[in-house]
Amino acid sequence: MANFDIFWAENGQKIKMRLLKMGDIQKARDFINACVVENLMLLMDKKITIQEEKKQVIGFIQKMEEGRGIYLVAEADKKIVGICSLERQPYRQNHIARFGIALLTGYQGIGIGTELAKRTLKLAKEMRGLEIIELSAFAINDKAIDFYKKLGFKEVARIPNYFKYDGKSVDGIVMHHKP
Ligand SMILES: CC(C)(COP(=O)(O)OP(=O)(O)OC[C@H]1O[C@@H](n2cnc3c(N)ncnc32)[C@H](O)[C@@H]1OP(=O)(O)O)[C@@H](O)C(=O)NCCC(=O)NCCS
Q1: Which end of the chain, N or C, is less surrounded by CB atoms within 10 Å?
Q2: Going edge to edge, which strands form the sheet with 168-177?
Q3: CATH architecture of the domain covering 5-177
Q4: Contacts with 151 (C-beta within 8 Å, 6 or more apart), sequence order
Q5: If you ran DSSP here, which 8-state letter would residue 110 be given?
């Protein structure tokens, strides 16, 4: 992938898409903490410190260097507004990679997620031996489930009480995509 790509969102906003880099620690932390404040339907529900984020970014960059991870960011207004990740699983699940995506609320619904996800899925084709791209979504997150179906993900399982959201149990929908 080139250093970065420019993409024009459906509202005409200029979006830069590129791989995560070491210089992103502060921006990535601001992004994650904003997702937590916005109470998005993601696994993460606690704000993180700069030290924690530094460790994470170092780990992510190492995974990318090993060809076992993809972390693609969307930047606008000088901040990270979206991240799409793909992480190869270890050992007897080495044929599987876990997919994740989130956009800040103010940047949803204007095509950025589709663009980030398509680029990540395209990069995944270069991962040798990969057979399954897997994700788990909150069963109540209709918008995300529709989004994934449009990308070609298929529901393969429903796991009861897989998440807690606002104190309530929520089922998980496991979806698969062929690389
Ligand atoms: C789910 C998410 C990644 C989709 O990305 P996005 O940039 O908002 O989506 P796009 O603008 O590319 O839209 C693609 C499709 O998603 C669905 N979608 C997007 N915004 C929607 C909205 N406001 N209401 C309903 N469906 C919506 C639609 O199916 C849409 O297709 P369409 O444009 O043909 O109607 C994004 O909204 C998000 O990050 N949400 C919060 C975090 C989250 O739920 N992540 C998934 C965790 S499993």
Answers
A1: N
A2: 5-8, 14-19, 69-76, 79-88, 96-103, 132-138, 168-177, 154-165
A3: 3-Layer(aba) Sandwich (3.40)
A4: 114, 117, 118, 121, 177
A5: S
Parse the chain into domains and list their residue ranges: 5-177
For the segment 1-51, what is each residue's pLDDT rounded down to a tens digit? 556 799 999 999 999 999 999 999 999 999 999 999 999 999 999 999 999
Q: Is there an atom of ligand 1 within 6 Å of 102 CB?
A: yes
pLDDT digit string, tens, across residues 51-66: 999 999 999 999 999 9
State pTM to two decimals. Answer: 0.95
Which is nearest to 27 in space by CA: 96, 86, 85, 73? 73
